[in-house]
Amino acid sequence: MKLRTAILSFVIATMTVSVPISASYGAEREQRRDDGSRYSDRDYLKNRKSQEDTLERALKTGESKDFYRRELAKMGWQITSVNYDKPDYLEYEIVKGDESYEVQIDFDKNSNKATKVDVTLNAWKTDATENALANRKKVVYPTRTTADPERYSDRQRMTTAKDSEGKLEQALKTGESKDFYRRELEKMGWQITSVNYDKPDYLEYEIVKGDDSYEVQIDFDKNSNKAIKVDVTLNAWKTDATKKALANQKMADYPNRTTTNPARYSDRQRMTTAKDSEAKLEQALKTGESKDFYRRELQKMGWQVTSVNYDKPDYLEYEIVKGDDSYEVQIDFDKNSNKATKVDVTLNVWKADATKKALKQNQTQARR
Predict the structure, then answer these.
(1) Where a domain ends, among 219, 239, 259?
(2) Does residue 196 share a domain with residue 236?
(3) pTM, to two decimals
(4) What is the 3-state secondary structure (H, E, C) of the chain?
(5) Which of 99, 219, 338, 348 can bridge 326 by disulfide, Cβ–Cβ 3.0-4.6 Å?
(6) Mean pLDDT lowest for which of 32-36, 187-191, 244-248?
(7) Is residue 35 situated within a structural domain?
(8) Into how many domains does the chain fold?
C-alpha cells in the first residue's frame, strides 16, 4: 500500500503551499547566504536524522515517566503538548527553535519502566505546538492532555491511514464498473469532493470523511469497462473543494464536473511528473561543468532560480520554480578543478520565502 509514498506526499503538501516568480537572483542570493540550512532539504534531512538519533539515545529505555520530562527540559526542548499520558503510553510534542518532534514512549504496566522510545518528525501539530513555533517564547508544561489526541498523534494518524487505506482497497474491489465505486464510497460514509479524472480507462476521486482525505485511483479495462487496479493514497495535493469540505465538515454534493486542470491536483500525476522532471533536469545538468553553466542551463529550460541556499567552493544549491513545480538542485564540486562531480535534483519540500512567493505569483497568473 505505498505508505512511504503517501507519507512523502503528505509532507510535501503540508510543508509547502502549492503556490510560485521572480525575485532578483542577486538579492535572493545575498539574503539567503547565512540562512541556507533552514531551507536546504539535504541539510534538513541530515539534521533531522541526527536530532532524532540524539534524542532517542538520551531518552533511553528502562526509565520512569518523570525522567523523560526532566531529560527533555535539560536538553532545551519545550514540551508543548501531551497527546497521551496512559499507564502504558506517553506521547509528547516538543519544540526547540523552529524544530518540532513527537516523542512516543511505551511502558511496561508492571514495572512502569519504558520499553520503547521513538522520536519522529511532528507532522500533525496541535495549536499549542504551532503557537510555540510561531512565537518562539517559553511555554509552560501543559496542565492537561490534548483534547481529541488522535487528530494530532502522528503514530495514531499513520496507523489510521494504513487501516483506512486497507479497508478502502478491500471494499473497492477490482472487477466492478464505475457506478459501483461511487455507491460503495457513499455507503461507507465518504464524500466524493472532487473527480479529478473520469476517462474510459481511469477514474480518480478525492474523498473526505471528518478530517481525513484520500485519493482513490482506479484503472479500467477499455473493453470490459471493469476495474483492473484500485489504489488508495493519502491526498496530498487537494482541490479547493476538498479543502473546503475538510474545513467546513459539512456534507458536499457530488461534483457536477471533473476538476479543472486535474494534473495540478492528481497525486498520481504529480508524482509521475516529479519523477520525469527530476530525470530530465539531472540529464541536462550534466557533471563536469563549472558553476555558471548550471544557472544558464536552468534559465534556458525555463526554470527560475528563486533561492541560492549555498554557494561554496565545493557545493552549490538552488531552489528552482516553473509554474506549480519547485525542485532543489544540489551540486557538488571538485575544489581543484571547480567542476561538478555530482548533481542531484529533488522535490523542494522546505521552501524559502522567495520560492513560495514565486509559486504564489505563478498560481495567481494561472487563474486569470
Answers:
(1) 259
(2) yes
(3) 0.72
(4) CCHHHHHHHHHHHHHCCCCCCCCCHHHHHHHHCCCHHHHCHHHHHHHHHHHHHHHHHHCCCCCCHHHHHHHHHHCCCEEEEEEEEECCEEEEEEEECCEEEEEEEEECCCCCCEEEEEEEECCCCCHHHHHHHHHCCCCCCCCCCCCCHHHCCHHHHHHHHHHHHHHHHHHCCCCCCHHHHHHHHHHCCCEEEEEEEEECCEEEEEEEECCEEEEEEEEECCCCCCEEEEEEEECCCCCHHHHHHHHHCCCCCCCCCCCCCHHHCCHHHHHHHHHHHHHHHHHHCCCCCCHHHHHHHHHHCCCEEEEEEEEECCEEEEEEEECCEEEEEEEEECCCCCCEEEEEEEECCCCCHHHHHHHHHHHHHHHC
(5) 348
(6) 32-36
(7) no
(8) 3
